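Record 1 of the preview.
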Amino acid sequence: MKQTKSTIRIAGFLGGTAVIVLALAAHALEKILPEKSLQSIITAGEIQLFHAIALVALSGLMNADAIKLKRISAYMLVGVCMFSCSIYLLIFSEMLGMLWLKALWPVTPIGGILLIISWFMIAALGFQKETSADK
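->
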């Protein structure tokens, strides 16, 4: 169980920091990095995020507290919907002639914050005390 907890901690940290790096690439780094370097950062962030997900799956989170997993899942699901769907709507609002959709922009960063929180909640699972069932 000790190895699993370490893996969960690392996966949560990798997932949270990947979301942060990708957000920085989308907003701050595009102004200071050449396009090729920016694309490399994005690729690295995506690979980090995908592998964080794989590490969570491999660590067998099913042994974790079901209530905490439901809370993490809810944060992640709402975060993804708010973040990704708002971006899709913002991008296509002009094409669809629905310029009022641009008012949704505050939804995007709130969704991103929920995603970061959910990843760090996963990391926190690795720090919870072991019960006799975990040993």
